[in-house]
Amino acid sequence: MTALKNDRFLRALLKQPVDVTPVWMMRQAGRYLPEYRASRAKAGDFMSLCMNPEFACEVTMQPLDRYPQLDAAILFSDILTIPDAMGQGLYFETGEGPRFKKVVSTLADIEALPIPDPHKDLGYVMDAVSTIRRELNGRVPLIGFSGSPWTLATYMVEGGSSKDYRKTKTMLYDNPQALHLLLDKLAQTVTSYLNGQIMAGAQAVQIFDSWGGSLSAAAYQEFSLAYMKKIVSGLIREHEGRKVPVILFTKGGGLWLESIADAGADALGLDWTCDIGSARDRVGSKIALQGNMDPTVLYAKPEAIRTEVGRILASYGKGSGHVFNLGHGITPEVDPEHAGAFLRAVHELSAQYHE
Questions:
Q1: 30 is in an annotated binding site
Q2: What is the reported pTM?
Q3: 31 is catalytic
Q4: Among residues 7, 36, 67, 78, which one is catalytic?
Q5: In the annotation, is 65 catalytic?
Q6: Is 78 a catalytic residue?
Q7: Which of 158, 159, 228, 284 is the most exposed place for a label (fewest CB within 10 A)?
Q8: Which domain holds residue 168?
């Protein structure tokens, strides 16, 4: 494989020295970019983008071509490819987001779920990873990803997006045996899925626990973090002669940073509700931190964006172990010029912290 021309993202995740703080954006390939919207129109729909390795590669590269400051590419895919491969029948309703033709509601439903083979059942994702990695040609590292078992389970039980996770939480309290079986199957699947991505060329992986913050403290430990720990312990941690860092991101997980830091990952993603300096005081001696600007700051004027970038960098302070990112995904209405101002500000303002 081609040597990396820019590896500061990987070095920061491992708390090694860097020249500037590396930066990427969650959902950096997305609807805020006119070139993405054009590709999606050409593909026909969102799933056709995801399931065609050439289209997935095309849209993964678009933000890198527009923003030379980006220090990583992230695979263009969706967390719900896993439930789809388990036979749930993923589709997208205009204005309503993801839906499933089947839902799981009983122990029997869960017992009947297959554990997909990443190469047979999700081969299009592996093909996308290898295609993107080849196209990158060492430009920046490639991030693979998956949803967490808890987050995936909420979609499978609810049948789509939910505001209160009523059905899933009812199962959690009324029928924990069933939910644990579902989470265990998902943990096995996520482990093999991420390992497949690593073998196909992903150089770091992130687990998105998007809805972990909806749980009580006790339920988070038992029904979300325990399964992410299981995944982390089963991941390939070295490939192609270098370490493969693992990032855990629980939106709303600020109360549990110490527990997440003990899960065995290399980096911890922070949403915007945490102060990154306080988080570094709490856990930064054992784990790198990723984050954590509020995505809505990108609606503001470039000078205000720059001020907020400077504040977050100052809060983290000197030294490596920080990957700058948003506290959640970039939103579709953001002006691409504002995203560019954000990325430039990170590199320009962070050099002083790495002398």
A1: yes
A2: 0.97
A3: yes
A4: 78
A5: no
A6: yes
A7: 159
A8: 8-354
